[in-house]
Inverse folding.
């Protein structure tokens, strides 16, 4: 059985699919691609049993076949070739020969039966319960880019290791939190009839962020899985089957003092303060007064200290509040597109709410950061 | 005591000196810079006791001082600042305050007495035995770039862990070898009266390769140290005090068959063959015939194999010879500036000699590669 593909087209495709191939796994079969050829279309699958990626391209053949081929090796071979046609000759002895003008490469394959089943959307089994919607690619990318950094890495609380997608009256809400900070992004005017919560695991979010472009994304949600269909690739992931914590109760409703600062200036200053803060606490002190923000840090063991003055607009009583500088930096690094941020403050012990001065159209973005105790 | 420097100028300087600061050392004092101010000039030193780097810049002060400051922290601070003047205020309590328009940063310093002595060239002690010469920066860089990769990493044979500089009648010879391959580069017309051998350790070669530019390099050689003086930086290194092995005896004198190949084409093919060769031997087979070079590799355990045909010019009897593909790739990767290479061959068991078709002016470059046994 033979089929022919262009090396550059195949490379592009494999490059998109390979993120689903696990690098270390107790199931070696997952280190392979499933190649499925039907009606002149080659569909390639990869999965780590949590997420699956799938994409297709036309090939020159009239036959049908499904084989399992070593993912990394095949990708390296295809990537190392200049643009050329590759003739795949699948032999019955478990070998595939890849022929180009100057070269011949032999790899082994396994039978498709050994590869795990990949769920499909919508299917006969799930078509009744599946919720379907369309999102703008740029909106979805914006939402993931601004929320994903606050997901927890603590395996003790699995629900927080994903991004909450919550359908409410006003639209679709994205929430992430690790207990120290929280991001809450509302995408207005996006809706379904069902007001449900879905938790998408970190891996799916991180892979999606890389492949989403400006095109419309079709989303299918079941109780256990979600499928994101992009122009030329489909990602299916398991959902995290846990209850998301009640994030609303930690959001303070009245933080009456507003501090407006330049994002870039604050980020540069915070990065310098991270050089001086104690490495285990990373504590940085904000001393806020009218028109002046002093940030400072010190490491008593190392005998180092730093402080800087920045311009800010502030309408409250002078206030000192401490933060983990790495968390402040995370927020700033994910808002470099915003010229200015507003910090809504109340007291040294109450969470601060941070918002961009200019919200993107149809987006309401809010970040919450817990303070840390100051010594004095 | 105070002095003032421009942050960008200081950053450039520290960036050149910091490669001599060891990252892990049992002597924490070496993780510092020595700042020495005399007559309005700040001279900065760093050393790992093998190599020392030293450079200067003018500063605004009339006083003299020598202090030891934490290298990594100071570099990170200076690098994180926008261009600004920095006022260093050295207090008697062991603290230095760095003042800018918006910020104040405090670091600790130690007394200069605690810092190891840095050798100077030429000095009263070594002026009689020191050999002095000038080399073109571009020539020296070319020599290091084409020879350094073949230095040994085996601590069992310390002499081979450096680059041999040998002054002979015809010029200055650079030799590196690890027992599997050898590079021998003659820089013609460069001379001293003394025909001596000096072995420069790997670290010095690697740091020099990064900082050498096209300007003349002044070299001072003593029996134990060598100093390279560039436009704005001086590197002093200990020499390896061992006898270099008799490299001439391994160079075959009559390899009568010549194979001419395109460097880039061969490199691309070798990289692909590395995907198929057994990972512990990396063996690749060259089957050479008139106008045709077939290279092939296989991994019996993985059931993979690859072979490719390249065009070559060859004037001998058909021949099969095996190499370690990683070593062939090293040679090709360090000769990407050469369009074509000549392989001088004799038999499957005799070392091959590789030279660029076009030698650079006043340079004679020769690379030797030992073959590996083929199975058949």
């Amino acid at each position: 059985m033979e089929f022919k593909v262009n090396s550059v087209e195949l490379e592009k495709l494999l490059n998109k699919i390979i993120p689903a191939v696990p690098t270390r796994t107790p199931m070696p079969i997952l280190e392979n691609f499933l190649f499925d050829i039907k009606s002149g279309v080659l569909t390639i699958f990869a999965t780590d049993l949590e997420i699956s990626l799938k994409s297709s391209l036309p090939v020159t053949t009239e036959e049908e076949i499904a084989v399992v081929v070593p993912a990394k090796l095949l990708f390296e071979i295809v990537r190392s070739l200049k643009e050329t046609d590759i003739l795949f000759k699948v032999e019955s002895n478990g070998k595939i020969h890849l022929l180009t003008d100057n070269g011949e490469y032999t790899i082994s394959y396994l039978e498709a039966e050994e590869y795990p089943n990949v769920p499909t959307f919508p299917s006969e089994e799930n078509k009744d319960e599946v919720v379907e919607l369309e999102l703008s690619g740029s909106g979805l990318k914006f939402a993931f880019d601004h929320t994903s950094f606050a997901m927890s890495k603590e395996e003790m609380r699995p629900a927080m290791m994903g991004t909450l997608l919550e359908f409410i009256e006003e639209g679709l809400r994205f929430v992430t939190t690790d207990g120290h900070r929280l991001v809450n992004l509302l995408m207005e005017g996006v809706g379904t009839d069902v007001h449900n919560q879905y938790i998408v695991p970190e891996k799916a979010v991180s892979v999606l962020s890389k492949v989403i472009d400006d095109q419309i994304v079709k989303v299918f949600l079941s109780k256990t899985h979600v499928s994101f269909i992009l122009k030329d690739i489909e990602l299916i992931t398991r959902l995290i089957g846990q209850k998301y914590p009640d994030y609303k109760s930690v959001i303070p409703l009245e933080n009456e003092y507003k501090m407006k600062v330049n994002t870039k200036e604050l980020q540069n200053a915070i990065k310098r303060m991270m050089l001086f803060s104690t490495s285990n606490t990373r504590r940085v002190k904000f001393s806020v007064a009218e028109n002046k923000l002093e940030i400072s840090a010190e490491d008593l063991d190392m005998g180092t200290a730093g402080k800087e003055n920045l311009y800010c607009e502030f309408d409250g009583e002078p206030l000192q509040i401490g933060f983990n500088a790495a968390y402040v930096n995370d927020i700033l690094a994910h808002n470099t597109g915003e010229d200015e941020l507003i910090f809504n403050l109340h007291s040294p012990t109450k969470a601060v709410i941070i918002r961009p001065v200019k919200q993107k159209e149809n987006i309401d973005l809010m970040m919450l950061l817990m303070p840390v105790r100051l010594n004095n």
The CA atoms of residues 229 and 296 of chain A lie 47 Å apart. Chain A touches chain B through 31 residues (CB under 8 Å).
